[in-house]
Amino acid sequence: MGHYRNKPMENLAAELTAGLKRLRRGYVDAAEALLAIVAPDKDYPPEFVIYRLTGYRPRGEAPSAAMSGKTLRSDLLELMLDICDSLPMPADSYAEPVYDTEALARRFHVSTKTIHRWRWRGLPARKLVFLDGRKRVAFLESSVRQFVSGHPEQVERSARFTQLSEQERADILRRARRMASFARCTLSEVARRVARKTGRAVETIRYTIRRHDQEHPREAVFPSLTGPLDDRERHDIYRDYLHGVSVPELAERFRRTRSSIYRILNETRARQLLRRPVAFIYNPQFDMPDADEVILGAPTGPAGPAKTPTTAGAPGDGERAPRGLPAYLRALYEVPLLGAEEERNLFRLYNYLKYKADHLRRHIDMKAVRTADLRDVEQLLLRANVAKNQIIRANLRLVVSIAKRHLAGPLGLFELISDGNVSLMAAVEKFDYSRGNRFSTYASWAIMRNFARTVPREQHQLARFATGGEEILDVAAGMRLYDPTRFSLPELRESIDVVLAQLTPRERTILVDHYGLDSEGNAKTFDQLGHHLGLSKERVRQIELEALDKLRRILHPQRADLMS
Question: How far is residue 374 from each of residues 37, 242, 257, 268, 507, measured CA to CA in Å?
Fold first, then answer.
């Protein structure tokens, strides 16, 4: 699909390209007819466009926001190409002459680059299958005539570019060869200098030289321009550019035009953007017409220090940082916590920005990379990263709080914090704000599961429990921590084992034996446990309730969040 500037047009394109094949050619012709009457300085409602293209008049729907004529014209040109691209349309099925880009350039004695500029100016194009079986960009004779009648000066000026006598052409090549050989000028510099000497346009000089070099490679003025750069040279150009080498310097060093250097840089940037993983949690709200206004305009700043903790393990208003922390960790306790609404808005913004970036980068045309598109994608990803950092900074003290409870093993506090930070960052990527839970709940489980894998003491404790069976859900329910929409059974089992390791041996034994969490999976009654431990049945029941209550206190933030 092409890059559409209006969302209604993008949706319409998706419907028409998936519609009946026998109707699609009619849609293309209707789009060109509409293009002829759309004025750039007027606005048009989507309902009008739908009616003109399909003959269907939407009824009973709220009017959509009008589209400017300028953007609508651009979208209609994209729509024609996308519909043609959705099925094989033979060029000879039209009862009039059809030209591909090179044939049209020969007809008007202009370069193919000029034809591309005409397309940007509004020359309608299709994608048709020619006699050689290949699908190419094509232009109908009627489309060309209408464009020429509407842009006579531009067409005439473009045609004059190549109306050179043989003597003029030879003089241009002689001057260009001397400058390239002795002054080592680039093509752009040669074109500008020769243009001043001859009074011809710069584009005329550039086109004359390049055309000569293509037709006579052994006598080329710029031999290096006749062949493509290999991947190594492209890599070197991009690397040098990142290290501060200017485009004019690169053009001179690699004997290329500045435009070709810019093209190489853009193509390299585009390939990197396409290879970059951009994962996000989708929400249907992202596709609403007012998504930008609602999501980008929502408040995401912290509401200020909370009087009660809203982040797991985080101190309340005025609580001091633990002793022994370095300055950068003590500073975490000065970062305001996020309220529920600010946190939800921030996660929604974070995922929406990545959604927009991913959507835009998928429409990048590697054959014609636009700097503006690359800049838009990079800006969206940068803003998303800023939002992610805000979330992480507001929750870093959560890592410190959990790490302090795992200091019994050989790992030091700073090692645990470093390990927990990695889990926190991964949790930001996977958290789905739309489920209604607080992020601290999800992040706490993620951090503790990670510590269960990295802290030897807890690994030893976990080895004693081969938890299996649905009884684990009963424990989770007793702790008020189980959300079946959030955790799979293996995840929940692993998390429960981690926190069971923090109980006393007797408390742990009662919970494990009562719910059958050992390797055999045999559950015991309170009577059996009392007889085994030398306690009354009621005392065993009390110890279990105290153990569950202790677990709730240990995991206070999760309990507080899920019950709020």
Answer: 32, 16, 21, 11, 59
Q: What is the pLDDT of residues 501-547, one digit of tens each?
A: 677 878 888 888 877 766 555 678 888 888 888 888 888 888 888 88
pLDDT reading at 70 higher than 60? yes
State which amino acid sits at residue 179: M
Residue where a domain stops, chosen among 275, 302, 337: 275
- CB < 8 Å & 24+ apart, contacts of 449-452: 449/423, 449/491, 449/494, 449/495, 449/498, 450/419, 450/420, 450/422, 450/423, 451/402, 451/403, 451/406, 451/416, 451/419, 451/420, 451/498, 452/494, 452/497, 452/498
68 — pLDDT class (breaks 50, 70, 90): very high
Q: Are the C-beta atoms of 443 and 427 separated by less than 8 Å?
A: yes
How many other C-beta atoms are found inside a 10 Å radius of the C-beta of residue 554?
15
Q: Which residues neighbour 326 within 8 Å (Cβ) at sequence distance 6 or greater? A: 414
**Pick from 401, 428, 455: which residue ends a domain?**
455
Q: Report how many domains make up the chain.
A: 4
pLDDT at 303: 46
Instruction: Provide the pLDDT confidence category of residue 78 given band limits of 50, 70 and 90.
Output: very high
Q: How many CA atoms lie within 13 A of 222 on its CB side?
A: 30
Please list the helix, strand and coil fractions of the chain in percent, rounded to the nearest 5, in that order.
65, 5, 30
CATH of the domain at 233: 1.10.10
- Domain assignment present for 159: no
Q: Is residue 183 part of a domain?
A: no
Crossing angle for the helix pair 556-563 and 537-554, nearest 10 degrees? 90
pLDDT in tens, 372-423: 888 899 899 989 999 998 999 899 888 888 888 877 666 677 778 888 888 8
Residue range(s) defining the domain that contains residue 363: 278-455
The string of pLDDT tens digits covering residues 477-489 is 454 444 444 444 4
Asked if 91 contacts 103 with a C-beta cutoff of 8 angstroms, the reply is no
Please compute the mean of the pLDDT values over residues 12-33 and round it to a whole number: 90
Please give the backbone phi and psi of residue 288, each rounded to the nearest 5 degrees, phi first.
Answer: -70, 150
Confidence check: pLDDT of 316 > 50 = no
Residue 334: CB atoms within 10 A of its CB come to 9
312 and 427 in one domain?
yes
Q: Give residue 371's pLDDT band: very low, low, confident or very high (50, 70, 90).
A: confident
Amino acid at the residue 349: L
CATH code (residue 518): 1.10.10.10
To the question of pTM greater than 0.70 for the whole model, the response is: no
Pair 448, 355 in one domain: yes
Note whether 294 and 339 are same-domain residues: yes
d(CA 293, CA 274): 27
What is the reported pLDDT for 486? 46
HEC letters along 399-463: HHHHHHCCCCCCCCHHHHHHHHHHHHHHHHHHCCHHHCCCHHHHHHHHHHHHHHHHCHHHHHHHH
Task: State the residue for tokens 């951009």.
Answer: 278
